[in-house]
Amino acid sequence: MSPHKAPDSSRRSDRSRRAIYDAALALVGETGYARTTIEGIAARAGVGKQTIYRWWPSKAAVLMEAFLDLAARQAEEAEGEGEGEGEGGIPDTGDLAADLRLVLRATVDELNDPAIAGPTRALTAEGIVDPDLGARFVEHLLDPSIQLYVTRLRAAQASGELRADIDPRIALELLIAPLTHRWLLRTLPLTHAYADAIVDYALGGLSAEPRGGAPRP
Amino acid sequence: MSPHKAPDSSRRSDRSRRAIYDAALALVGETGYARTTIEGIAARAGVGKQTIYRWWPSKAAVLMEAFLDLAARQAEEAEGEGEGEGEGGIPDTGDLAADLRLVLRATVDELNDPAIAGPTRALTAEGIVDPDLGARFVEHLLDPSIQLYVTRLRAAQASGELRADIDPRIALELLIAPLTHRWLLRTLPLTHAYADAIVDYALGGLSAEPRGGAPRP
Lengths: 217, 217
Fold this sequence. Notes:
- Two copies of one chain form a homodimer.
- By secondary structure, the first copy, chain A, is mostly helical.
- Chain A has a domain at 59-204: Tetracycline Repressor, domain 2 (Orthogonal Bundle), CATH 1.10.357.10.
- Chain A has nine helices and no strands.
- The radius of gyration of chain A is 21 Å and the shape is elongated.
- Chain A starts with a helix and ends in a 13-residue tail after the last helix.
């Protein structure tokens, strides 16, 4: 429709890029990281493989960008639903337990969504045995969401809800690691009730006595 | 030396079996699960591949048994050193925090030991993308050690050290999942200080106030 060539070609590029991301995520989820190839992604996306080679130096680079795009779309979607974890970070209603339950339940839903879980599982497994890929995975995909927890926990320390003597960067691992553990190793079902229990146990503590105090009621 | 054929042949079998386990663990740690083959294991162990096929139906079966053997040897060694986690389970000195610190520190040492970490990492990664292998991994290798935690936490509930209203099978995940998370994803160094912090945070809780009580000191 436009008389200009540039916007048209840019629209075509956007369409190809989207098709390549979708193909890459679908393939890695279905056949695993090792068996996913640039050729396979090109064929499934309906583009020439030169198109992919022009934009990305390697299979790892395409996949990483496809994941970043997926994460960005999820974040937008979550924000649309007012469900936290978007660019605005973890909600801060002043009730830390409620905010964490909301975010961990949303994480459970994501990990139980095959469209997200398949490719994420494949990339995580590859990162476990390939330190370079693993480091990029952590830097680009994991660390940004870890920072959201650090920010929310620091706010809870400032408001007096969270112990002042703990390191938020360690504390958040008590919240997110159990979910990752269940999900990756498939030990037991990953449910909202589980997310709630993790928040309750982590905030309240497992010990029957508060530190330096009388037995709990 | 023995005039009997049976013991001799059984000693030879033991030697071959040990060589096959060692070769299987070394190879999977060095080249990954996918590139480890029965032929490769046989060549490295100095046995014919028919020897392996006679004893095990598949590569997965050899590796699982090699891991079980490794775990059993570790347990014996730990018991020799009086370091818990052996057949006797997690120590129960009446001081839950001290017992957990001991066990989590020993876990940190194991995960930082390349001889154990390499193959374990390879098998874990494969189990993440192969549900059948993952299920066998959990059943034979993970669940037995999970049961040791359940037993120790139940004892702590009985003695009044641990909240009576928590599920030990969930509570233990706050202790072991953070270590697994750091180790698998290589987010930050896995140290004794980290293990101690996890025990402190999990038992004491992250919250500034004990449940239903006055603010903590």
